[in-house]
Amino acid sequence: MNVLIIGGAGYIGSHMVALLAEHGADVTTFDNLSSGYRDSVIAGEFVHGDLADPYAIDAVLARKRFDAVMHFASYIQVGESVRNPAIYYRNNVANTLNLLQSMVAHDVKRFIFSSTAAVFGVPQTDLIDEEHVKAPINPYGASKLMVERMLADFDVAYGLKSVALRYFNAAGADPQARIGERHEPETHLIPLVLQAASGYRPNISVFGRDYQTADGTCIRDYIHVRDLADAHRLAIEHLLHTGSSEQFNLGNGNGYSVAEVIEVARRVTGRTIEVVDGPRREGDPAKLVANSTKAKAVLGWNPQFADLETIVKHAWAWEQRQLEARKG
Ligand code: UFG
């Protein structure tokens, strides 16, 4: 099976490359290295190119007959999307449209899309399933929902079959610590907490303790990056077996508060972690937890690293490797 992975040098994309290669797929990564790293691509072929360049996309699709395309290359910061929506609509929507048109021209009919819990906006129910109302409250979520809409239309008009996977909070690292999260700047809770544990940062700021939750801090559903990658692999299988276009919410269905994450990190690392209380971060809902029953039923998805302790353990092994690399 030939798979093209757009954004395969990034956090989730690089775990996808590794997992698909282990399953015997022939993987080609296409990435402009704007936020990814060449050495995160540990298998397959690497093509340096920019999604903003339709000729480069055309050229990579002409290299071989791809059975499927996966698309991880997008901007992902909610706050930045509010301040600079233009780059979100340009990169996440317009460039994806170019990619889809090029796929149609090359007769590539299967597409796996990285979507997000941010398409839902403010949660109306305790657990969020696929039917939950989609009312994004920031340009990031809106940009992903626009692509989901385009995918529905491309299916009807051109027969392009797709699976949109809506991630809740991607976390953890490769169980062998070969690759992991390397955002610059880092904004995600678990790597920041672990950087505070390793001494790379002085402390971790808790963004708000006055939410309507048991301990007052925000609750999120942390899902291991390797389990996310596995859902993508199963999504290709689904489309190969002539499955219909679908959307799936991907999480563990368990919520952990920011304070609980810090406590687990203290246990796993055995380090003291200094906590500073900060104000709420704009646009943060109190609680986001997935109902992933559909992914389990339709794709046969079965997360292997569902407990937060394992997620933090793997992220900690990676943070320690990073610390060595930063010294070296
Ligand atoms: N947090 C802190 N301190 C920090 C960083 C984060 O307290 O230094 C808190 C946040 O306020 C939030 C929780 O930790 O309550 C998790 O924050 P992350 O930034 O790790 O993740 P988000 O839940 O904000 O983001 C995730 C995805 C986004 C997606 C969003 C949907 O990473 O891509 O969910 O709301 F858009």
Report on the structure:
This protein is of the alpha/beta class and 328 residues long. The protein folds into two domains: 2-171 and 223-250, Rossmann fold; 189-220 and 253-327, UDP-galactose 4-epimerase, domain 1, CATH 3.90.25. It contains ten helices and 14 strands. The strands form four sheets. The protein has a seven-stranded parallel beta sheet with strand order 3-2-1-4-5-6-11, with helices on both faces. Strands 12-9-14 form a three-stranded mixed beta sheet. Helix 5 (139-158) links the parallel strand 5 (110-116) and strand 6 (161-167). Helix 1 (11-22) crosses helix 7 (225-240), helix 2 (54-61) runs parallel beside helix 4 and helix 6 (189-198) crosses helix 10 (308-327). The chain is globular, with a radius of gyration of 19 Å. The model has no long low-confidence stretch (mean pLDDT 97). The structure holds uridine-5'-diphosphate-4-deoxy-4-fluoro-alpha-D-galactose.
Cα-based radius of gyration, to the nearest Å = 19 Å
Going across the biggest sheet, name each strand in turn. Answer: 3-2-1-4-5-6-11
Mean pLDDT: 97
Q: Encode the helix/strand succession as letters.
A: EHEEHEHHEHEEHEEEHEEHEEHH
Tally of individual domains = 2
Q: Structural class, from helix and strand content?
A: alpha/beta
Largest sheet descriptor? 7 strands, parallel
Q: What is the highest CATH level, the class of the largest domain? A: Alpha Beta
For this structure, the CATH topology of the largest domain is Rossmann fold
Q: What are the distinct ligands in this entry? A: uridine-5'-diphosphate-4-deoxy-4-fluoro-alpha-D-galactose
Number of helices: 10
